[in-house]
Amino acid sequence: MARITLRQLLDHAAEHGYGVPAFNINNMEQGLAIMEAARACDAPVIIQASRGARSYANDIMLAKMMEALTEMHPAIPLCIHQDHGNSEATCLSAIRRGFTSVMMDGSLMADAKTPATYDYNVAITERVARMAHWVGASVEGELGVLGSLETGHGEVEDGHGAEGALSHDQLLTDPDQAVDFVTATRVDALAIACGTSHGAYKFTRRPDGDILAMQVIEAIHEKLPNTHLVMHGSSSVPQELQDIINKYGGEMPQTFGVPVEEIERGIRHGVRKVNIDTDCRMAMAGQFRRIATQDPREFDPRKFLKPAMDALRDLCRDRFERFGTAGSASKIKVIAMDEMAKRYAAGKLDPQIATAKAA
């Protein structure tokens, strides 16, 4: 079994200067395609499931699928991550099901739509980190509220996302506050707000510094050079995928995602985990539409799913290569979770905090 914790994987990524794509999944076909891409280019991988995905796939089925994927690809370090956990119970239930990492998103209240206070965020994230570290699991926290600098609103996906208007301050993580947050919570990774958002409709134009604040990432990295940063809502919404969907009956209006070159810029400044979901959905959906249009008589799901899996595999491989992840899997010696727990208990995993630069 090659399950790896988020902390160990991102430590390796930081040491060698690469980023790791974190692909959301809902079903077996997505898992198979992602792992095939990882195998093809010797890349470690993060597969993550939201609360919505866990409900859709069923926890028992999801756990068995993750077990099968690790057995099929024993040489690929695989981090299994809970995306946007909304409570202690959500996070702990994921760990019980075999997840090696959880995100406690305390930027929102437990309803996953109401922006939370800073004190609430610190308190609940610290509790989850403390409990998870007891068993060696990793924890990602979030500071700032994910949403669009262009519209001033969040974007709901799988039942998660801020409702109503958000202030400019809420939409951008404060670098000084980030130092305090990491110190107080002892999280292993920090998701930041810089103008990215969930879904396909992130920007109405190619983003610049006014609506995609990459300078915030650089400022936080300057203050926390050893803290692993996370970019959420970072699908690039490729034009070619939009074109395929629309060519075969779709009606997607022109939209823009996060350019891959901006993600590469983030990786140069401490971004180690990059969340990608929409691009995966678009790659598969485009092939569903193509097959249905080109052969209206087709009814075998496999005839739709196989081309869709191929498209997803190619997308994932491109991201592994662009983010510098390719070639790293065989270089990692996976540390068991019980050993990670001992290291947390001994205080050996605190240098992220100790080396934080004063404001």
Detailed description of the structure:
By secondary structure, this protein is of the alpha/beta class. It has a single domain (6-231, 249-275, 319-348), classed as Aldolase class I (TIM Barrel). It has 15 helices and eight strands. It has helices at 6-16, 28-40, 51-57, 59-72, 88-96, 118-134, 168-171, 175-185, 214-223, 239-247, 260-267, 278-294, 301-322, 337-345, 351-354; strands spanning 20-24, 45-49, 78-85, 101-104, 138-143, 189-192, 228-231, 271-276. It has an eight-stranded parallel beta barrel, surrounded by nine helices. Strand 6, helix 9 (214-223) and strand 7 form a beta-alpha-beta unit. It is globular. The protein starts with 5 loop residues before the first helix and ends in a 5-residue tail after the last helix. Mean pLDDT is 94; it is low at 354-359.
As a whole number of angstroms, the C-alpha radius of gyration is: 19 Å
| Discrete helix count | 15
Overall, the morphology is globular
Report the helical percentage.
40-55%
Domain count, please report it: 1
In terms of DSSP E residues, the strand content is 5-15%
Fold-level CATH name: TIM Barrel
- List low-pLDDT spans: 354-359
The first-to-last residue Cα distance is 42 Å
Strand order of the largest sheet: 1-2-3-4-5-6-7-8
Average of per-residue pLDDT values:
94
Coarse structural class: alpha/beta
Reading the helices and strands in chain order gives HEHEHHEHEHEHHEHEHHEHHHH
| Number of E-state strands | 8
CATH classification, class level: Alpha Beta
CATH superfamily, called what? Aldolase class I
CATH architectural name: Alpha-Beta Barrel
What profile does the largest beta sheet have?
Answer: 8 strands, parallel, barrel
